[in-house]
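Troubleshooting log. The previous structure file for this entry was overwritten by mistake, so regenerating from the original sequence record. Sequence copied from the archived sheet and checked twice against the printout by T.R.
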Amino acid sequence: MKIKDGMILFHGSYTAVEKIDLNMCWDGKDFGSGFYLTSNVLQARSFIKTSILKAQRFGNISPLQNYGYVSSFRYHENGLRIYEFGTTDREWLWFIAQNRRPYLAKSLSGRVNSEAFEADVVIGKVANDKTNPTITAYLNGLYGDILSDRAVNFAIEELLPNQLEDQFCFLTSKAVECLEFQEAKKYVI
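Regenerated output below.
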């Protein structure tokens, strides 16, 4: 899952993305407000449907639109601060918890390496639509106190971490400048 100079990364959306605008990124996502990519083109394609449904719900596109795009970017190394979660462990889960539910930051303070919050790019496993019910149940305390070993271990086991794809979140302008647009391919869903 390491990022390498020259690596091609993919972004699935209801629209082609040639120029990245961090102002269009939403808060409350796994690794914060940033531009999300994956090294797996099939994973990017799977996000098209979710993106279309959200855009339709907010009136950004026609309710009849049944296509989207996978935009690809070549990564060029430029001395970025990169933080990588090597596995789906408690630190990964607590980082997601703080980004999805900022009010949890106080109770989780000091439990995640501060470098994760200072990074230009954060890399780790994706918590996607398939894993959302488990993450939400964990965040709502349905497995017990979110700090308890029991709740953390149960949530991680339920997520089947060995089956999760990667995600790369580009959080800063400096990070986005390292991405060179390659092409956008249209897909009908």
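The first strand starts at residue 8 and ends at 13. Archived copy saved in two places this time.
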